């Protein structure tokens, strides 16, 4: 009999820390892009150039975490029948943390032994393991380390269904996840729905990313004979399948393979040397399938240990998405909703067939253990019948942003309520704006995050002029792509009241390195204790050719330690810069694809790069 219950997960966990108070005006350089778009098929090329985000506004970065972990409890929800036990983390993006096959006792997912954020998501903080649900834009969702609403609804068969839902702020889209585990099912079913409540098209990106254990013999199987390879070189290239790519442990460097699936039941599986593992299948809308491997280079192995200390042989990811690749976005028309059904469960096939040279025989052996098309489609139709059902008592609470947006839109979204009692201090300034009030704000305090969609941007333009409203107008104009008008607004903000926040934004916007450095110094003088501002200011001084020794902190840690080394090197103190590395330091939020540590080491020493500083992806 299926059971849904509350519990908690106890494990070593780092604190997520505070959000960065400075608005993320630009995307990190490491965000993937394609250099050979003109070589792509027309439909793929169109998706590659459409809908890319230039910033994650209105969200702020989550970069205040550390590498210090202590044992603590995380709220969890368990859905269980006689065959499977699924554990979901509602406070962390609804991550499916664990999926245990009870008859065999096997954990089907890669279950991280710790909770350790690292800089891989659109908002920075991300953690490895389980199944992540990515809505938004190319990259890990802004909600990966954020809470979701959760409650139970009655399933089509009378069993409890676990519903999670939230409002994705970069696209202003509500979405839901319905975890359904019928009494007799050996597959965890996940119904997904994305709705566009607006009068305009919205770019949509969705990928369900599943981490599974990797052994030396793990093979990834998928009904495809070709794949688009992306190897962090900036190119997409079509390659043949199978080959060594289906054995991730044999790969030397990190790589993405987007399979060209030829099936009306898209699926992907990862199996070990015995032919056992996890399979994921879906209805046809979720057409894309991908393999991500970290590779067996020193940098790839270090990344896995960085993300999952004690990871052993490591993990790989098998993924499923709406588009052919993760570098595309699709158009969701006004007023429409897209939905589909995913199935996660154990697979077991003859190892001789699975690991044989006949690719078709290998994929057929795995496919035989997955739900047939007719079964998936019937389950999908049944789930659709309860997708609008109103959820019961809350099991977890999300943010107040959905309540704010649905309040001003007067939107009706059956099945995913955003209660007014979730409105809180973050939303209050915008509730005041709706009521025609314009709080003056304190220029010594970081402003609240800026809402930047069309509605709020227009409302800001017609409210009373203050340093704060000019500041917010600038951020909204910047998000809309009007860079000149944004800078005009920030200059007006500074003229109304000298403040670090508009000065910092002007510094980011400045095209002249010397001007940027000057503006950062003015901003830092007004807010010397804001660590993210210090990091940006030091970087700007170095970019302008200065050696800002006077700005260095007494005991540099993390990224400030690296900037200390750069500053000493710029001042001609090579030995002092090398001493920073010799003393040892960690940058908790070093970015995926970032080469600052290895590049700096090469400028300082002819010795091999110490493994602690090796994060090279290629």
Descriptive notes:
With 618 residues, the protein is of the alpha+beta class. It folds into three domains: 3-394, Beta-galactosidase, Chain A, domain 5 (Distorted Sandwich), CATH 2.70.98; 425-530, Alpha Horseshoe (Serine Threonine Protein Phosphatase 5, Tetratricopeptide repeat); 547-618. 26% of the residues lie in helices and 26% in strands. The chain is built from 16 helices and 25 strands. The chain has a nine-stranded antiparallel sheet, with helices on one face. Strands 8-14-22-21-18-16-17 form a seven-stranded antiparallel sheet, with no helix packed on it. Helix 10 packs antiparallel against helix 11 and helix 11 packs antiparallel against helix 12. The chain starts with a strand and ends in a 14-residue tail after the last helix. The mean pLDDT is 95.
